[in-house]
Design goal:
Number of strands: 5
Shape: globular
Number of domains: 1
Strand content: 5-15%
Structural class: alpha+beta
Strand order of the largest sheet: 1-5-4
Order of helices and strands: EHEEEEHHH
Helix content: 25-40%
Radius of gyration: 15 Å
Length: 155
């Protein structure tokens, strides 16, 4: 996986993963790799993991054309030879809007939170917890609103 620090503009691929195709900031969250610093902590709601799992499923169902091919291996886990570093369902990415940004988040950010004490920023936690189901018009309308009332590269 490519590394980005939190809140960097995303330009990973053409289409939905390139901030140049958005009319609002497309910011990276949770793109961690071995040897790169990240914020550690344990301040997150109890049900954050379940919410991430729900969004991962919903995004994979609604947006199959933007799924990556193959699973990511956690470079932080690779340090432990007795640990399977494969992150199943890591081919899914979450596009989570708040009032003025869209965050692009690896679908297995829950692994980094639970296993590597990654402290996801509080404003992103709030956005995840409040994100409408990506399969609904509520999601589409919110993304359009955040994207300066323009259709997004997701659609």
């Amino acid at each position: 996986m490519t590394h980005y620090y939190d809140m960097e503009l995303c330009n990973y691929h053409d289409g939905a993963f390139d901030y140049n195709n958005w009319n609002c900031p497309l910011l990276t969250i949770g793109w961690l790799e071995k040897g790169k610093n990240y914020t550690k902590g344990s301040n997150f709601p109890f049900d954050l993991r379940d919410r991430i799992a729900f969004l991962r499923f919903a995004f994979s169902e609604k947006f199959p054309s933007i799924l990556f091919r193959g699973y990511h291996e956690c470079s932080l886990c690779k340090l432990d030879i007795n640990h399977d570093a494969t992150l199943y369902h890591s081919h899914v990415n979450l596009f989570v809007p708040d009032e003025k940004n869209v965050y692009v988040i690896p679908g297995r950010v829950d692994h980094y939170i639970e296993e590597h004490n990654y402290q996801i920023p509080n404003e992103v936690i709030k956005a995840i917890m409040n994100c409408p189901d990506p399969r609904t018009d509520d999601f589409k309308n919110l993304v359009k609103k955040v994207n300066n009332n323009s259709s997004s590269p997701l659609y």
